[in-house]
Amino acid sequence: MKISKETVKYVANLARLGLTDEEVAKFSGQLSAVFEYMDILKEVDTSNVAETSQVTGLENVKVADEITPWTASGEVVSREDLLGASELPVESNQILVKAAIKK
Q1: CATH 1.10.20 fits 5-41, yes or no
Q2: DSSP secondary structure, the chain, as one string
Q3: 11-46 b/e with 16+ CB inside 10 Å = b?
Q4: Nearest-5° angle of CA 98, CA 99, CA 103?
Q5: How many Å is the Cα radius of gyration of the chain?
Q6: For residues 36 and 1, is the Cβ–Cβ distance under 8 A?
Q7: Mind listing the pLDDT tens digit for each residue in 20-79?
Q8: In the chain, at which end, N or C, are there fewer CB atoms within 10 A of the end residue's CB?
Q9: Euclidean distance between CA atoms 13 and 19, whole angstroms
Q10: For residue 19, what pLDDT band results from cuts at 50, 70 and 90?
Q11: 16: pLDDT confidence band, cut at 50, 70 and 90?
Q12: What are the residue ranges spanned by the domains of the chain?
């Protein structure tokens, strides 16, 4: 399948890409080669091949969340102790920090 220079210019315009005439000619040839290769791949019989989204056999590892108390020197540290250790102001059991995003 031959991709024309006009098609390359049209797609480049849709993607807001400014291409030179040399780039248009280059990409026209490259895209034509890709589509010709895809035409060759269409000849392969894949009717008995199962669809797959990945082939490595890897799976997501999921671990359940667990709440564990914070300990220091073998003793459980309370929320109040942790909040009290901050030099920043505390409001509604939360440490107030400066905004990361300005409005």
Answers
A1: yes
A2: -PPPHHHHHHHHHHTT----HHHHHHHHHHHHHHHHHHHHHTTS--TTSPP-S-SS--------------EETTEEPPHHHHHHT-SS-EETTEE----SS--
A3: eeeeeeeebeeeebeebbeebbeeeeeeeeeeeeee
A4: 145
A5: 30
A6: yes
A7: 999 999 999 999 999 999 888 888 998 998 888 877 888 888 889 998 888 888 889 988
A8: C
A9: 9
A10: very high
A11: very high
A12: 5-41
At 41-56, the pLDDT tens digits run 888 998 998 888 877 8
Distance CA 13, CA 34 (A): 21
Residue labelled with tokens 């250790």 = 85
Give 95's strand partners. 90
